[in-house]
Amino acid sequence: MRVLVVEDFEVLARTIGTGLRREGMAVDVVLDGDDALAHLARTRYDVVVLDRDLPGTPGDDVCRDIAAGGAGSRVLMLTAAGTVRDRVEGLGLGADDYLPKPFDFTELVARVRALGRRSAPAVPPILQAEDLTLDPSRRVAFRGERRLELTPKEFALLECLLAAGDRVVSTEELLERVWDEAADPFTTAVKTTVRRLRAKLGEPPVIGTVREGGYRIGVPR
Fold this sequence. Notes:
Blueprint: E1 2-6, H1 10-22, E2 26-30, H2 33-42, E3 47-51, H3 59-69, E4 74-79, H4 84-92, E5 97-100, H5 105-119, E6 127-129, E7 132-135, E8 140-143, E9 146-147, H6 152-163, H7 171-178, H8 189-201, E10 207-210, E11 214-217
Parallel strand pairs: 1-2, 1-3, 3-4, 4-5
Antiparallel strand pairs: 6-7, 7-8, 8-9, 10-11
Helix pairs in contact: 2-3, 6-8
Organism: Nonomuraea phyllanthi
Pfam family, one: Trans_reg_C
Keywords: DNA-binding
């Protein structure tokens, strides 16, 4: 899941970003509305966690722009004002959900995940391929009866490949969906993570490499 966090209080913004990355999400963090619009113009995000009170372009205008753009990004609006009227106004601007500050981080994660499911194409709640099973909601994966101990990046990469079915997923797409804007496009991060993941999955091989294409489930090469 690719998430944009837009929050002008830097400590809170960085804390949210770090926490969501630990949950296996690819997260970019910006501190004002102008930077948010610039990011949205070049990257498609599943969810935007958007503070309503921003310097530069106001959060309300950023929300309107997202709703009008038709890219399918879902908006979770944050604000210190938590009255019913404020929530109604926020939803009226095009926000998909509304969370008043202060909030519990576990609730934030749950709401982001729920919105991410709504923004993505429908996939089965449990992803499977032969004896490989992955449950995105519980964050667990099994090979047969063996539970796999995966890092957040390994889990996210495997989830992306399983959700794609028979489709080949390019290295560029994996960098965009699993990593964030800090990832070097020339990095070997994808190749290295796939190698570690293959080692943990064991035999027989389940992740195939498609020459000059990328990776997919079930095509060992």
